[in-house]
Amino acid sequence: MKVDAVAVGPLDLASGLALLTSSQQQGFPWLSANLLDQQGLPLFQPLYIKKIGKIKAGIIGLTGAVSPLPPGVTLADWRVVFPALIEKIRPQCDILILLSSLSPAENQEIARQFPSLHLILAAGRQSGNMIPQQVNNTLITQTAAQGKYQGILSIDWHKSGRWEQVKGEELTELRNRLGALDWQLLRMRKREDLQQPEYLDKIKLVEKDRETVTRQIETIEKGLTTGLSGEQETACSLNHNFLALQRSLPEAPEITAIVTGIKQQIHDLHANRIGKKVQFPLVGHEGCKSCHPAQGSFWQETRHARAYQTLVDQKQAFNLTCLPCHVTSSPVLALSTDQLLSLPPTLQAVGCENCHTGPGGSHAGQPEQFQMTKQVAEKVCLSCHTQERDHTFDYQKKLALIACPTGQAATKGRRP
């Protein structure tokens, strides 16, 4: 593959430590500064320095949380091992790069604490393609999981070691966010029947969010029109691109057979866990429909109602990677593994409580005291409709298609 460095991630360890160590002995460039043996020594090379023309790049690898760890292996806290490493190679290198499978919050903490770090190439499984985000003087970026994209960074490097902030795309995102907030406020202000203190407080929070986004847009626009000073013209810059694996590529029969076999093993393994007596804090669509018949009838015609069946058709109904986005769950009350594998029929769909953040049991008993969230936040949709899963997803357009009727009659035929 002719790669310079690969940080050991949690899923790499799933293949077994022996495979990694043997491939390392054959020259594969695994990096991990915080995977330690019984003596407290790194199992893999913690860092690598590569000379690119006249520029020296220092690369450090950090492994994210692993459970369970292989026998005899410990995972050191990055706060213990990382500071000494970066201080060690900082004088030797022009650009410092971290390969990290830590959480997004940890990556941002590192960026704030170590301004001499220039680039974090992350490996979060849930985040998908992430355009470079600047925290302090560190850019954080990553490509989607499972090799669906190749990420390319073209860097124009200068001795200043300072990034020219990547503002154009950030400005576009903020403007899109402002439009979504304006639409949300418009809907909320029309609901005169809900102008109660608690609901008004929610409106105030959205208005505050809008003010923050507006200030951010004004700050960026001012910076873009002001231009760069002579000193800033030596700042480092980059271009980035995500190249998608072509969907038209033909399947390799031998690989397809392996993948199909693995999926069947997953299905059989989890199917054997069914039957445990578990309780469900969610009421499901039937419970909601008893009080909201028009909305229930409308929902029945959407694709959300058939989301679980798509897994059944593909024999993936027990795949824990897929299940959370195809059944009734809740962003504020995630279901356990046993619950996901023992779902009653009324929860085998993307139901009301997915969007109107449940559980609905308390609301059904005391609707005035326990009110469901009526406006579906964009982040709720994006938790499943990520870029790699649904690259054409448009929040405002899709929300309009699944918005439940407010009258007594449901409009048929609209699909999310």
Please give a structural write-up:
By secondary structure, the protein is α/β, with parallel strands linked by helices. The protein folds into 3 domains: 6-164, Metallo-dependent phosphatases (Purple Acid Phosphatase, chain A, domain 2), CATH 3.60.21; 169-226; 253-402, Orthogonal Bundle (Flavocytochrome C3, Chain A, domain 2), CATH 1.10.1130.10. 37% of the residues lie in helices and 14% in strands. The chain has 15 helices and 12 strands. A 6-stranded mixed beta sheet has the order 4-5-7-8-10-9. A two-stranded parallel sheet has the order 1-2. A hairpin with a 2-residue loop joins β9 and β10. It is globular, with a radius of gyration of 25 Å. It starts with 5 loop residues before the first strand and ends in a 14-residue tail after the last helix. Residues 227-233 and 408-416 have low confidence and may be disordered.
Give a brief outline of the structure.
The protein is α/β, with parallel strands linked by helices. Helices cover 37% and strands 14% of the residues. The protein folds into three domains: 6-164, Purple Acid Phosphatase, chain A, domain 2 (4-Layer Sandwich); 169-226; 253-402, Flavocytochrome C3, Chain A, domain 2.
